[in-house]
Amino acid sequence: MYLVLLLAAGAVLGGVVVVAMGRGGQIAIFRPDIPVPALRFRTPDDVALAKLPLALFGYQVQATGDALAAAAALVDERDAQIAELRRELLRLTAFGPGGSAVPAGSAEPAVAIGGVSSDSGEPESDDDAGLTAEPGWRQ
User: Rounded to the nearest 5°, which phi and psi values hold at 81?
Assistant: First the structure.
């Protein structure tokens, strides 16, 4: 009887030593049994109101990764739209009064986009943030 208990204790102790040395394998990460809802963000309000599913410790990894990827796609889409609108604005303001192109050395006012003047590259005051130039069609 003592021999059986001694062998069982030795087997348990040997197993603990093998696992402690790193040869016991890795812990597998299993997907949750409940399905993760697909998150589709269309507006910033959707991102703010998103409720991520909870796991044992914190949030579900897959759902959180999907939510961050969806939010990043929304931000990328918005950045592309802003860049396109800025290009269109510069194209429209490149023409002077009467629709003629403004020469590079003319005295037309510079267009500032995002609080930075296109001439000097220095930030403007908070009062002048955004578009500060008079459009060429206004006289």
Answer: -65, -40
Cα 64 from Cα 32, distance rounded (Å): 13
CA distance 29 to 27: 7
pLDDT of residue 75: 93
**Would you kindly state where each structural domain of the chain is located, as residue ranges?**
31-93, 98-139
Q: What number of other Cβ atoms are within 10 A of residue 127's Cβ? A: 6
Residues of the chain with pLDDT under 70: 27, 29-30, 32-33, 36, 96-139
DSSP state of 12: H
Give Cα separations from 60 to 27, 40, 109 (angstroms). Answer: 17, 17, 53
Residues 6+ apart with CB under 8 A from 59: 52, 53
pLDDT score, position 105? 52
107 and 99 in contact (C-beta within 8 Å)? no
Integer Cα distance of 118 and 93 in angstroms: 12
Q: From residue 125, how far is each of 97, 117, 130 by CA, in Å?
A: 28, 11, 10
